[in-house]
From TrEMBL:
GO MF annotations, alphabetized: ATP binding; ATP hydrolysis activity
Gene3D superfamilies: P-loop containing nucleotide triphosphate hydrolases
CDD domains given in the database record: ABC_DR_subfamily_A
Similarity comment text for this entry: Belongs to the ABC transporter superfamily.
Residue ranges of domain ABC transporter in the record: 10-237
Keywords: ATP-binding, Nucleotide-binding
Record lineage: Bacteria, Pseudomonadati, Pseudomonadota, Alphaproteobacteria, Hyphomicrobiales
Protein's name according to its UniProt entry: ABC transporter ATP-binding protein
Species for this entry: Hoeflea prorocentri
PROSITE patterns found in the cross-reference section: ABC_TRANSPORTER_1 (PS00211), ABC_TRANSPORTER_2 (PS50893)
Amino acid sequence: MTADGAQPVIEVKGLVKTFGDKTVVDEFDISVPKGAIYGFLGPNGSGKTTTIRMLCGLLTPDAGTGRCLGYDIVRQSDNIKEHVGYMTQKFSLYEDLTIRENLDFMARMYKVPERREKVNGALEELGLANRSHQLAGELSGGWKQRLALAACLLHRPDLLLLDEPTAGVDPKARRDFWDEIRRLSDAGVTVLVSTHYMDEAIQCDNIAYIAYGKKLIDGPAADIPDMVGLNTWRVEGPDLADLAVSLEGEDGIEQVARFGSALHVSGMDEKRLEAAIAPYRKDERRIWSRRQAGLEEVFIHLMSGSTDNFARAKAG
Ligand SMILES: Nc1ncnc2c1ncn2[C@@H]1O[C@H](COP(=O)(O)OP(=O)(O)OP(=O)(O)O)[C@@H](O)[C@H]1O
């Protein structure tokens, strides 16, 4: 149960998936509220897609239990699939079919009632009604993405899975895409997004950070920096590259990261961090300011602290 008494849309415990000798997902637990935009963040190959596919019954876990949309993820996976829209990382529609043919094909696959009306409606909504006979392969990246989203919404899914949805899409199209996702979420559709882009992560209500198959942290996006408890100072001025090298060697400084024309210097222990930067703050050419750690710093920190159990498995 969530704080408002509603059942979570997804609730799973102890999910495990192994491919060969590699444990790709290791003891994964999560609870996803209805209508949330939940981001799965982590580097390439960390197990985000595999986790999402197990949560929705598209892949059978080796261990673990749970429910998605009220159905058991192992025994009732077919029921779950009927209510899920899945937008894969690569454009998965047929490039040599027209825009209309692609939508019509998807509508048939999902046995959408009043197919013709729904397809016409989707074409109108997309603004593609007068280009419906154009081949999908001729569309730009942004338009392909809009078409793929429209196709996986035809059967009105309750849960939407987006695998790195805005990779290779221009900034305006990215913004429009995220506006549409927010509208869907407001209408009660639950959205799981896998990404390793920070600008997608900050659009999410909740975030689970996954590295090497393990969930390092999850919770409301706004609370994650506080949950980690990282202290950060920002410094601007000349010779930042040299300064970064000196700071990195100091006791009490755990991370020095470049952000545009500034460095963000972070540590877990506030007193030790302040003592470490004190000598450098005497140099008046530079401006130092205390700042609240953001998601960016937190994720760099989490990544540097996580161990590569995939590499260990290979070595062992
Ligand atoms: N069917 C499979 N058979 C064997 N190995 C697999 C299979 N599916 C995924 N893997 C491996 O599992 C690991 C996790 O893959 P997954 O796609 O879940 O990660 P990801 O975090 O989504 O990465 P990306 O951002 O690159 O999509 C990778 O090392 C991948 O090669």
